[in-house]
């Protein structure tokens, strides 16, 4: 820990906590398991289609994902921007 901060001293690095992590992930639209998504959230509802590669060879759950994509979502996780 100390070595990292000594090496980064010239760059002014500082430790950051969960609040900083949450701000960064929210700005990118990344969901956090247990907070934004749970075991009850379908990957396609959570906008995780970009990591759900349906064109790959068979994998566990592929049939269910393809069916869900064809049927469409009944709910959708979305982000929004608040302007002052």
Overall description:
The protein is an all-alpha fold and 84 residues long. The protein contains 3 helices and no strands. The longest helix has 11 residues, at 18-28. The N and C termini lie far apart (39 Å). The model has no long low-confidence stretch (mean pLDDT 89).
SSE layout and pairing:
Blueprint: H1 2-7, H2 18-28, H3 62-71
Low-confidence regions: none
Q: How confident overall, as mean pLDDT?
A: 89
Fraction of residues in β-strands = under 5%
Oligomer: single chain
Helix segment tally: 3
Shape: elongated
What is the SS-derived class? mainly alpha
Entry keywords:
single chain, 84 residues, mainly alpha, 3 helices, elongated
Could you provide a short overview of the structure?
This protein is mainly α.
